[in-house]
Design a protein that fits this description.
The structure is a homotetramer of 287-residue chains. Chain A has eleven helices and 16 strands. Chain A has 287 residues and is an alpha/beta fold. The first copy, chain A, has two domains: 124 residues, HAD superfamily/HAD-like (Rossmann fold, 3-Layer(aba) Sandwich); 118 residues, HAD superfamily/HAD-like (Rossmann fold), CATH 3.40.50. The first copy, chain A, has a seven-stranded parallel sheet. Chain A has a five-stranded parallel sheet with strand order 8-7-9-10-13. In chain A, helix 5 links the parallel strand 7 and strand 8. The longest helix of chain A has 14 residues. Chain A is globular, with a radius of gyration of 20 Å.
Chain lengths: 287, 287, 287, 287
């Protein structure tokens, strides 16, 4: 039941792509993926990248695609869960400081809110009265032992909104090893404190709505003309299905050729299409 | 920190109300709640009812408000999780039969999809090849022992989308007793089969987006001008907060005066306002 | 790495068997399983049946083995999770009534406690002050809709110990279909009420300890001389491992030849031995 | 319904005590608790300490009681979840290395097993073929970022038994702050990998059985003559109840005078007695 990606994509006017496992992996870009974007542009198919990566802003993310050889993935094409967190803070947190777990680079999202962003590493647990929100952004940029324990006490001692900008549990660092993602740390703190955090990122439909609302074409033509392409059943495919658009599973990341059928059967998460990859390999830009 | 509902509501242009525990309870309408709607109309504040009730269609729900003495809650003001399920089926299920758990009345949502709706009670487990989706609508209208077991086997034997139109776990039947809601039955089947179902209803933000997209005023003025009013922290308030609108907790349903502070502190779900009820008692319509 | 069951069993002095999926399935006895018991007796290897079945007492269970052609599995060889529940009630509930969910036959366990057993079907929810415990025994013998809802309210209105005599989530009724087991119903009520129930049955080690304490030989020779044989990784094998005895997985029930290696790898539950079945087929009793 | 501890204790022949929150807290010993032990000795009531603390061996734990002024709590009176883990490794792991998360001091338990213990900090993830088990012992003694990520990959890459010697989620470090306990770290890794770990410590009944089997008096007189004293409903009281002995909740730790009734009602975990503390304050040793 494996289909050719070109034939699939020809049925739609707008395509949403997941990033990791679809466009790139821990070694760099998926070979020839740039041909897919040449094809989309040539055929007037609009595209967006929907990523659970809140470790950098869209400008930095776009820069990394440019460097790797994918100049068509520009800043305005990238929608990240960090942007959802930013919008939440803008509308719901009226002032004061927002503490964050992550690198200075990830705090980029917070600066745009007008709130004073402070790294958890710089928080003094005895002076927390002006901290009005806490955001999980990235798994680096702090001392795990000291700062995760400090964060736990901040959540216990102050009743403020806590936002998880990325609910992924782990991510690959190379062909063999994975790393714990911020979503797992947040889930652990939620369990210990019994509090409910506010979660952004696929499979939650927020990011799909955000993308939809920024695509005049999609709104005009309707959801039937949009395709979500992803490598992960319980984020990309589940979220796309729930939002009511068609979904295509590709086998270049979390889900493998050898077990995709079993995975679909055991999870009950059913993509509309399955393709080996998102590469349109035969295509060459006409110069 | 208890505020007067009138003073709260005056700060907004659009108000979303939960139904059960806010407008009505197991005894009928909350006394004087009709005055609130007179006030909203007189002051040009738009309103919608956002309910996790998928047991009847909006027309039937509106009829029940009319009978009880609340004629201003008309069909077009009601947004239910059943409507989310209906839209999903319309866009994602291409043909065939859709099986449902619920009364014939709840199946109203399915008829509008053009799919052939069949009650789980009428399904023959040996002939299920043409069933392309399953929907949990209501806890009545079938034999629990026979039909919940049949449904379990349908989910095991056929890999189709399964939709939960109401994720509530229980609902009150009188001042003392509660009943198991369809959300609990669905969760049990999910656990047994290990499959992921598609869930609609608060705290999921789908219903908020649906309401938002149907309110020209809200879209023009922005989310800052909308208030969500509910009695339940982990559905109404969590969902409203996540959608990025202000929230008001009322103490006429699931959350009580004697423990609302403790509940807010232990769950970390923080409403922007707390009011005794949604009643604007001092108000009288000028004739 | 599949081993011959005879060679495995020769290394031990005492063997604990799971029942369903090891000795019998929905069609009856596993063919030739009686030869295994002839072999054990001839070789002076002691055996016990450890079953999560609380639907009947040991006498009735033994009778069913006799009828099927396995006379060596006598009443004194059977240890069931119902016996754990019985012992709990004997020591912890001082008097009054104990309500139960199940058939009159399953209530056998309760009669031995000296408490007055009353079926949930016969409970009047307005007169529950003398009910001092509640036990989940079997999924039949009551009206699911009426009585499970009544039970929910009993748990909410009276703070009494609630005992689950069987934590299995489902059981096979024929080659194609399964039925919801009492463990799933209990788990649903636990979720709705937020209360903690007391659970007996594998993988909990209680039943292993009970068996161990009734086996003079095991106590004398030590745990190293005991083998647990089961078809289910997360009950039989997990429980046996945790109790500190060797474990053998057989492939005649829940775990199949085609996926046992994948199941062991994904769950991390590792049996010491894997055998096609518990049958010692080559063996004939010397007359 | 608060009872005097002396009157409660007089009804039993053997008493099991939890340590933290009952005998001591983050400031040191509970004032006058030594009088309780004088009383027990004078009245020939046997006692044991049942602790989920696997960070040190019984000798070190006893030493700390001696230093604090409680010389009657000697090494032979202490039963810890680390001892359960040690026994598991002794019977179930046949050779090779056992990796551990914790301090060198916590590894004391592993040395007694004859296995070669290696700190996760010293594991080379490219040479793990001789590691045959992994044990979570303590939250200190390693680099959280580097070593917890390394441990995650060890669990993914090698299918070996993983043992959690302490399932507590957090512990108090002073009157205001808590620290993340090893049980939370283990639970996070379990979630990420989907594997089932082997858990020791209350509420699991293993530790109660171990204590019971080491008390000739208890075995002779029966479970009815044993009392479990603890400050935590979901470990001490739940575990004691399940084991079938009487339980007493004290209000000097996790459960407070102001909310113990609410906690008992919401959890459904019901102690047989509630006492302000385990102190028998009026008692003076006769010299």
């Amino acid at each position: 039941m494996i289909k050719d990606f070109r034939e699939v994509v020809d049925q739609y006017d707008v395509v949403f792509f997941d990033a990791f496992g679809v466009l790139k992996n821990s070694s760099g870009l998926i070979p020839d993926i740039e041909k897919t974007f040449d094809y989309l542009v040539a055929n007037d198919i609009e595209f967006y990248i929907l990523t659970n990566d809140a470790s950098k802003g869209p400008a930095k993310l776009a820069e990394s695609y440019l460097v790797k050889g994918l100049p068509l993935v520009t800043e305005d094409k990238i929608i990240s869960s960090g942007m959802m967190a930013r919008d939440y803070l803008k509308t719901k947190v009226k002032g004061g400081k927002v503490a964050y777990l992550g690198t200075k680079e990830s705090a980029h999202y917070l600066e745009e809110t007008g709130l004073h962003a402070v790294s958890i590493a710089d928080v003094d647990i005895n002076h927390i009265d002006d901290i009005n929100a806490l955001v999980f952004l990235d798994d680096e940029g702090f001392d795990w032992f000291k700062d995760i324990n400090k964060l736990l006490n901040l959540v216990r001692l102050r009743n403020i909104p806590v936002i998880i900008a990325n609910t992924d549990r782990s991510y690959p660092v190379n062909a063999k090893e994975v790393s714990i993602a911020i979503g797992s740390i947040a889930e652990m703190i939620e369990k210990i404190t019994g509090k409910k955090f506010i979660k952004f990122g696929k499979p939650d439909t927020n990011m799909f709505i955000f993308a939809y609302q920024h695509t005049a074409k999609a709104q005009e033509l309707g959801k039937q003309r949009i395709l979500m392409v992803g490598d992960t059943l319980n984020t990309d495919i589940l979220g796309g299905n729930k939002f009511g658009i068609d979904t295509a599973l590709v086998l270049t990341g979390n889900t493998l050729m050898e077990n995709y059928q079993m995975r679909i059967a055991t999870t009950g998460i059913i993509p509309d299409h399955v393709c080996e990859s998102a590469v349109i390999s035969g295509y060459s830009k006409i110069l």
